[in-house]
Amino acid sequence: MAGIKTVPTHASVEAFLSSVADDARRQDCRALVKIMKEATGARPRMWGASMGFGSRHYKYESGREGDWFLTGFSPRKRELTLYIMAGFERHGALMRKLGKYKTGKCCLYLKRLADVDLDVLERLIRESSRPAAGNHA
């Protein structure tokens, strides 16, 4: 079985942020760092090619286990990808207030931060990062 590639690294968070070529996207990334840091109480850390905050140990019934970040993001070419590891099922009321977005199972896709209510986004991150949110990875 192949090992997990998304693991904590010693790569520089500042270098990662500075490498974002588009100025508006880089500003959104810096704003996300502030929001996620406030929401989780954790410092940013590079997890592979993504930035993560905090960590949670998980263990599946199969016996597979590991550690994963509570929340994080990556500035993809087309949109910002935010990792809301608890998923969105429990957060219907917040999602209705959030603004313009798309979702995957645990991914929130935003074109730009200006498309969403930042207070609602911070609350979503805060609530989904609580231990009661489950051990999703």
What does this structure look like?
- The protein has helices at 13-18, 23-40, 92-98, 118-128; strands spanning 44-47, 50-53, 56-59, 65-68, 71-75, 80-84, 102-103, 107-110.
- It is an alpha+beta fold.
- The chain has a six-stranded antiparallel β-sheet with strand order 1-2-5-6-8-7, with helices on one face.
- Strand 7 (102-103) and strand 8 (107-110) form a beta hairpin.
- Helix 2 (23-40) packs across helix 4 and helix 3 (92-98) runs antiparallel to helix 4 (118-128).
- The relative contact order is 0.17.
Tally of individual domains? 1
Mean pLDDT score, rounded?
90
CATH topology: Aspartate Aminotransferase, domain 1
CATH architecture: Alpha-Beta Complex
**What is the distance, rounded to the nearest whole angstrom, between the alpha carbons of the first and last residues?**
17 Å
What coarse outline follows from CA principal-axis ratios?
Answer: globular
**Helix content bin:** 25-40%
Work out the number of β strands: 8
Structural class: alpha+beta
Estimated radius of gyration: 14 Å
Helix and strand pattern: HHEEEEEEHEEH
Number of H/I helices: 4
SS strand fraction: 15-25%
Kindly provide the name of the CATH class: Alpha Beta
Biggest sheet overview: 6 strands, antiparallel
Which regions are unreliable across 5 or more consecutive residues at pLDDT < 50?
A: 132-137
Strand order of the largest sheet: 1-2-5-6-8-7
